[in-house]
Design goal:
About 45% of the residues lie in helices and about 25% in strands. It is built from nine helices and 13 strands. The protein is elongated, with a radius of gyration of 40 Å.
Length: about 325
């Protein structure tokens, strides 16, 4: 015969119900906690600065965050069951590191709108407690702003490097650049035995121009003369503001005959140009020129400049407004 009484059975049933209620309450709380955690996880993921994707063990995408969509334009539903390799140009891949459990590379990804973005792709492997691969996760970082900043920095450096080699008044190269390039030319042309020439040029009667029209207009006139020189130079040839009203023109590949013709061309263009017209003036200018050629006249930059300067000075002494060469042939052109 059972020893249980109806009161005891009712008590036991009541305890069981309370236990079940307690378990249900705990489960409900755990569900709410997990739901809250999942919502937080998704919120954090969607608002991360990096794009994020989760992949299965066969590298098919199973999840993508909002940043991924913002960067590349693909909604999550469009990339599910797609491999990331379909989203980038494989020829553009530049590997940073690659191992069994980690992969990092830069590549050009294709956006939904048809654009192209440089992306840093970092993939890690997910494993279970036994070490078996269960999937992969990857973070995608948009490098376009970084690359733009680097390009702007490069341009800025090039700009200031160029400015450091330019004359502030005329925009022509300065003597620092001249000496550097003459050293390079004597080495390279010495090896190839090809000529190059320099023209030393000094404005004639320029003090009269300054005395008559003022220092400001004198500076403007030198700017315009520099423009005349610049327009007549092609290829690797370049002009230099040597100091005051003196200029040097460097002509790579020019022998003496060709260099003399270029000097005459510059001389005639200056004589036939009316300067300072924008200032309401009509100023006519002229200059004296000296030509020296490597390696016929000298094989080092100082001697070459000295000989061109002497050839120019002889023109100054013999009447100005002409072109002289080394060895002295007098005024080649008047």
């Amino acid at each position: 015969m059972s020893t249980h009484t109806p009161q005891k059975n009712a008590s036991t049933a009541s305890d069981t119900i309370e236990t079940l209620k307690s378990r249900i309450h705990r489960l409900s709380a755990e569900i709410e906690r997990l739901k809250f955690t999942q919502e937080n996880y998704r919120y954090i993921l969607d608002n991360a600065q990096e794009g994020f994707i989760r992949m299965d063990e066969k590298l098919f995408i199973t999840e993508a965050n909002g940043t991924f969509t913002r960067i590349l334009g693909y909604p999550e539903t469009e990339v599910l069951s797609t491999r990331p390799s379909r989203l980038y140009d494989r020829k553009s891949v530049d590997f940073y590191s690659a191992s069994k459990y980690h992969l990092s590379f830069e590549a050009v990804f294709k956006t939904k709108a048809g654009g192209r973005l440089p992306i840093l792709f970092n993939r890690s492997t997910l494993r279970d407690a036994s070490g078996n691969i269960t999937g992969y996760i990857a973070f995608l970082i948009d490098l376009s702003e970084l690359k733009y900043a680097r390009e702007q920095l490069k341009k800025s450096r090039e700009k200031y490097r160029d400015l450091s080699l330019r004359d502030n008044l005329t925009g022509l190269f300065n003597t620092r650049y001249l000496y550097k390039q003459l050293g390079r030319l004597t080495r390279s042309h010495g090896e190839s035995r090809t000529p190059f020439s320099i023209i030393f040029m000094d404005m004639d009667y320029f003090k009269r121009t300054v005395d008559q029209y003022g220092h400001l207009n004198g500076s403007l006139a030198l700017q315009e003369v520099a423009g005349t020189i610049r327009k007549l130079l092609t290829g690797d040839a370049f002009g230099v503001a040597y100091g005051g009203d003196e200029f040097v023109v460097v002509l790579p590949g020019y022998d003496k005959s060709k260099a003399r013709k270029k000097a005459v061309e510059i001389q005639e263009q200056i004589k036939n140009t009316t300067y300072l017209t924008q200032q309401g003036l009509q100023v006519m200018l002229c200059a004296s020129f000296g030509v020296a050629t490597f390696p016929d006249d000298a094989t080092d930059r100082s001697a070459l400049l000295g000989l061109a300067d002497k050839a120019m000075f002889r023109i100054k002494e013999s009447g100005k407004d002409g072109v002289g060469t080394t060895p002295d042939r007098g005024a080649e052109t008047r």
